Amino acid sequence: MTVGILGTGYSVPPHIRTNDDPLFDQVKRVVNSKGIAEKDLFTGLRERRYLKDGEQLESLMLDAAQKALSQARVSPAEIDRIYGYASVSPYLTPNALYAIHRDLGLPQHTLVVPINSEFSNFLLSLIQAWEAILAGHCRYALIVCGTNWTRYMDYTQGHALSVGDGAGAVVLGPSTSFTLVDYATQTLSEQYGAMVMQTRPLLLNGRRYLPVDEQNVPLPTYEILLESGIHSFQTAGMEGPPFLIQQLLQKHGLTGENVALLTHQASRLMLDYWAQRIRPKEYLETLERFGNMTMATYPVNLAYFFHQITAEYVVLAAVGVGFHQTTVLLKR
Q1: DSSP tag of 36
Q2: Selecting from 3.40.47.10, 3.50.50.60, 1.20.1270.360, 3.40.1260.10, what CATH number does the domain 180-191+224-329 have?
Q3: For the segment 97-154, what is each residue's pLDDT rounded down to a tens digit?
Q4: pTM score above 0.85
Q5: 62-71, 151-160, 273-282, 302-311: the lowest-pLDDT one
Q6: Domain coordinates of the chain in residue numbers?
């Protein structure tokens, strides 16, 4: 038996934030000891989607899941497992993936498996679901990943220029198309802590404060450390994915000409460099249209391009905090 993607779906907010949004006026150009500013690393942006106050990430995830189920012609009652993640979820625990189980009306026997591994949540969910189906423990699995990080940014930091909200989903099951072939992964845990989301004191206009919501509860914000974080971006972040991808392609006698490439999309610097190294037949990216949707980028872009892909194989490559990177090979 081969396991493949039967259906895809994505959902993004209708609200668009462009480069001239006043919110980005707060972004500072602070340089590290090597004279490099985080702001200068995040290039090539034009539009991002964002959720307004009162709008919920779960609604995007639910919409994406319903579209994937419809395309796959699989009913909610047939789903044995649901994988994925909502980031940032309303609660520290449980993850809002349980709300998607409820709102889809999935059976009580459906196992909910939240995968907390930003930004590779979707790829690790693919791998886990693939192995579960091959082992005979389930027949159909649903993967749903969504992000609302625009609400959890420190808009004085350069990476805030790139972030957008969105959600994507796929249904996996027995199939002869878009089948999972192999994967490769690398963990560089010595870089643990270089990129983090945490509740932390901020320094603005010479005063320290914690970002708070209307209940005066501290909110977590993402941070790329000025020294170690930028170093990770420029070394493992840039070089790691092409290294892993080339290893995986060589293992199966393939080259970039055989694949459609789908990667993390934080910056034009990264995308252009990876394109030069891999030279794929197609590059499935939406940086100018949707920005950096972090963990949701992979299922959103897969759904966005699903019916346009002409390459025989698809390579998905994720980088993530921790620090880790993973790549998955699919056969169309």
Answers
A1: -
A2: 3.40.47.10
A3: 999 999 999 999 999 999 999 999 999 999 999 999 999 999 999 999 999 999 999 8
A4: yes
A5: 151-160
A6: 1-174, 180-191+224-329
Token pair recorded at residue 77: 């009652």
CATH code 3.40.47.10 for 1-174 = yes
**From CA 173, how far away is CA 179, in angstroms rounded?**
9
Query: Tell me, what's the pLDDT at 233?
Result: 84
**How many CB atoms neighbour CB 59 within 10 A?**
16
Identical fold for domains 1-174 and 180-191+224-329, yes or no, is yes
> Among 177-181, 227-231, 244-248, 282-286, which stretch is predicted with the lowest mean pLDDT?
227-231
CB contact at 8 A, 145 and 168: yes
Q: Hey, CA dihedral for 28, 191, 185, 140, is it positive or negative? A: negative
Q: Is the dihedral of CA 81, 84, 89, 94 positive or negative?
A: positive
Residue type, 266: A
